[in-house]
Amino acid sequence: MALLLCLVGVTAALAQGCLHCHSKFSEKFSFYRHHVNLKSWWVGDIPVSGALLTDWSDDTMKELHLAIPAEITREKLDQVATAVYQRMDQLYQGKMYFPEYFPNELRNIFREQVHLIQNAIIESRLDCQRRCGIFQYETISCNNCTDSHVTCFGYNCESSEQWESAVQGLLNYINNWHKQDVSMSLVSPAFRCLEPPHLANLTLEDAAECLKQH
């Protein structure tokens, strides 16, 4: 039976969001909110667009729908942020838009951002699992923007000796965990797509469907 071990070290909650954790988020979204009244010919678009921007972080967490912790690496967060800011800056370079166009474009960018974050989190987890044995990588918690780390157990061992060493490493890790009294969560073995031999041919799209909660 496959076992996916996930250890996440975080501190007290500070804020919510994924993109919210990026260093330029406050500056960028402050600009977007303060200039929203210049982007539509129809006054009704202004409060709608303002609400979308104000609730961006909380709505992101609601829409992620992941069955694994929302932990993203700094590198991938930078990639997501760059893509989102580029789309937003292009939208704001235009003059005033026809009614409903501006808030609809904000929704499109928001949905694209959610998809990018989902893929980034899942891709890092799959890369981790494709190793042999215990592996850890540094992340940022999307729940509270604090430094965190994810530890997983990979099945990609090329020999029985490597597998025995990997299992022994897992046992040692669990023993150390009990000694340190660190919080641990286990992803259910019901995720068959993450079990060998499926892992070798697993695509990011297949994994996304497996890990998303429906």
TrEMBL record:
Gene Ontology cellular component list: nucleus
Signal sequence annotation: 1-15
Q: Please indicate which superkingdom the organism of origin belongs to.
A: Eukaryota
Q: Which UniProt keywords apply?
A: Signal
Question: Would you identify the family this protein belongs to, as annotated?
Answer: Belongs to the Izumo family.
What's the protein name? IZUMO family member 4
